[in-house]
Design goal:
It is built from ten helices and 41 strands. It is of the alpha+beta class.
């Protein structure tokens, strides 16, 4: 069924796709109307802190006239904007290159080092004999910290005295932590200030009370046993002369929070679905201030920081939701001058010890006659220093706001808000009421016929947020930070006024009646910009295309997931490979898939097969399945075809080769067999398609693509 749908959609796309024109960085030349637009480095616009030593540069050429082609280009790269403006390409001048290539041109200039900032532009000739090229505006990129010795910071954490949790009948949801440090920037003029930040968990970073980015769920999900990603931020405009302060929230995230269906199926650490990579979150960052005289000052995470777990975020979990008690807010906690005398000193993450736990997952049989069963092994939940790499993907952001189409009061104080569209994200709650009054938000995709919220399909995902008011007469706003949900409907329950604890907050505002809350849906996804639109005369087909796009957006949250609502949200390889070609039509997914394909290659099993999902936190059933495993060939091949990306083939070549050797070794005279997880034709209706047949077809497909 899925294949028929894709075939029909591709035909529709072939007939009626209209490619949108994105034209930042535009300069038009002469009467030809030629323009060089959309300059990208490693598939991103003006990226900060990248780590490829020879980054790839791309651009688009647009013209109001038909049939205009690029005949030649010249790339100019300089170490400062001023030099480039003056025509001094001190890093690289490609010279005039007779070529129509505009995608993934490899930098061939002076070797680049940590922290280097590069400014570049492109000259393009629309005719081989033209003497007046079209010149783009200036774009830029910066290099990250390329050597481990560049990191002067270390991971800090809080003293975690809690035992390893083992109870499957109740949830363990620790509070998010706040970390802070004050520092002086000095009086010298600041040329540039850059923060490099990472966490074992997820974090939000502030300077002088202001967020450094609108990115959510940073630094994303990766296999922390192998690596952690770090992010780079330009914070020059956030610093002031004299006293400054750094502050960061840190929550469990994928590192130590509930992940996937571990709790549902009884696999993973202690069968509870938590502690997949470690027990206690940690954070590491360094702020580098470069002064106009060339000197540098580094502010880093060390023992001089303070931490508290007594702040307003009492619970924070990706699957379960967030509890926020506004009475516990610390105004000004990320600004200079805040009294943190009641906060605790941090400890180095490595000082939290090495608690042991039992990790349960399946093990493939190694001997004839052995059964596939869950087995346990002892693991160390203590801190382990991962390899650091610059985040290569796209930030998860709020990309659209949706106002409720209708509000129904089912009973006094209980409302159902209908956004009119399934989204992945959170809500913005706006409310007035008593200090201590509780607002509970539950999320769902459907309603029962009688109007009740349906949540059975969420399985073990609690998908509930709660806000406890502080009683501000001007009103209060709550946006969860460290969770997301898949939903169209929000059930909002306003707690009774008499349950409010009047003594909870000294000096709180007088009690007042809680008004009907206001709810706005905030759709989030990795910021893969749409590159095509579709419209025809049939409203139903137009709606179908919108559903396809919304499905893509809702499931592209740091990795291509199976669903954004229930206790799963993992990077299922079967879903990723069957959809990757469609994804490249709808949006610019090159950086997004580049990031996830790294996880896929590193998840390769010892046999050579690719797993059912990547990252691969635990094994459920066999560690591979027909058509799912083949993502290791299909996804890199498709990105190469769609974006002319040879580098991704070069980087994936060895694991792809091992996969094909596994394919050949496990075949029956080059015909498929029934092995692994027999998910097969997942969306079949009626009789099941034989696994041997599907396996043969996928062996043929991947063999052809590999060839």
């Amino acid at each position: 069924m899925h294949q028929h749908f894709l075939t029909t959609l591709k035909r529709l796309l072939g007939l009626a796709i209209v490619f949108a024109v994105f034209a930042p960085l535009t300069v038009r030349a002469g009467n030809r109307g030629l323009a060089v637009v959309d300059l990208q480095c490693e598939y991103r616009v003006n990226p900060l802190g990248i780590d490829p030593p020879k980054p790839r540069l791309s651009w688009q050429v647009h013209s109001a006239q038909r049939g205009v082609k690029q005949a030649a280009y010249q790339i100019l790269v300089a170490s400062s904007r001023k030099r480039l403006d003056q025509g001094q390409a001190d890093l690289w001048d490609s010279g005039k290159v007779a070529s129509g290539d505009t995608v993934n041109i490899v930098y061939q200039g002076r070797p680049l080092g940590s922290r280097d900032v590069c400014f570049w532009k492109v000259r393009v000739w629309g005719s081989a004999n033209a003497s007046d090229p079209c010149t783009s505006a200036i774009a830029s990129w910066s290099m990250g910290l390329l050597a481990p010795s560049d990191w002067k910071a270390d991971y800090i954490s809080y003293r975690d005295k809690s035992p390893v949790y083992t109870d499957r009948k109740s949830l363990f949801l620790p509070a998010a932590r706040q970390y802070r440090k004050e520092f002086r920037s000095g009086e010298k003029p600041i040329r540039r200030a850059t923060v490099y930040a990472t966490a074992l968990g997820i974090y939000e970073l502030y300077i002088n009370g202001r967020p450094v980015s609108d990115q959510r769920l940073a630094p994303g999900w990766t296999d922390y046993r192998r690596r952690a990603y770090y992010n780079t931020y330009d914070v020059t405009k956030l610093l002031v002369h004299g006293d400054n302060a750094l502050g960061t929230w840190v929550a469990d995230g994928w590192y130590s929070g509930y992940v996937g269906f571990g709790l549902l199926t009884g696999i993973g650490t202690e069968k509870i679905g938590r502690y997949t990579y470690g027990k206690t979150p940690a954070v590491m960052l360094q702020l580098e201030i470069e002064y106009a005289d060339g000197t540098r000052k580094i502010i880093r995470t060390d023992k001089s920081w303070k931490v508290t777990g007594a702040g307003p975020i009492r619970e924070a979990d990706l699957l379960m939701g967030e509890v926020y008690d506004a009475r516990k807010e610390n105004p000004g906690w990320a600004a200079p001058g805040f009294d943190d005398s009641q906060w605790e000193p941090v400890i180095m993450a490595s000082d939290n010890g090495h608690p042991k736990a039992t990790f349960y997952d399946f093990r493939n049989p190694t001997k004839p006659g052995e059964r596939l069963e869950v087995k346990g092994r002892t693991i160390d939940l203590g801190f382990k220093r991962p390899k650091l790499e610059a985040f290569p993907g796209l930030a998860v952001r709020v990309v659209q706001e949706l106002h409720a189409k209708s509000v129904t009061e089912r009973e006094p104080g209980k409302y159902i808000y209908d956004l009119g569209q399934n989204i992945a994200g959170v809500v913005r709650l706006e409310v007035k009421g008593h200090a201590g009054q509780e607002i509970t938000l539950r999320y769902g995709e459907m309603l029962y016929p009688d109007g009740r919220l349906m949540t059975e399909n969420l399985r073990k995902a609690r998908a509930t947020d709660q806000y406890i008011l502080k009683g501000d007469p001007k009103g209060e706003v709550f946006v969860p930070r460290f969770t997301f949900h898949g939903f169209q409907y929000v059930e909002v329950t306003v707690g009774k006024a008499e349950t409010a604890t009047s003594s909870s907050t000294a000096g709180s505002a007088p009690s007042q009646k809680c008004e009907q809350p206001r709810i706005t849906g905030l759709a989030i996804h990795s910021d893969t910009r749409l590159t095509s639109t579709f419209k025809c005369s049939d409203p139903m087909v137009n709606r179908l295309f919108k559903n396809v796009v919304w499905t893509q957006r809702n499931n592209f949250i740091d990795l291509p997931t199976d669903c954004p609502q229930r206790d799963e949200r993992m990077g299922w390889t079967g879903d990723a490979q069957v959809y990757v070609a469609t994804a490249t039509y709808n949006a610019d997914v090159a950086a997004f898939y580049t990031k996830w394909i790294r996880e896929l290659m590193e998840s390769q099993r010892p046999s050579g097969a690719f797993p059912g999902y990547a990252p691969f936190p635990f094994q459920h059933g066999w560690d591979f399945g027909t058509a799912w495993a083949d993502a290791g060939i299909i996804c890199p091949w498709t990105i190469w075809q769609a974006y002319g990306d040879k580098r991704i083939i070069e980087q994936c070549w060895d694991p792809m080769t091992r996969f094909m050797q596994w394919r050949e070794r496990t075949s029956r005279n080059y015909l498929g067999i029934k092995h692994g997880n027999t998910w097969g034709d997942w969306l079949t209706q009626g009789d099941l398609t034989p696994i041997e047949f599907i396996d043969t077809i996928y062996f043929a497909i991947t063999s052809r693509l590999m060839a």
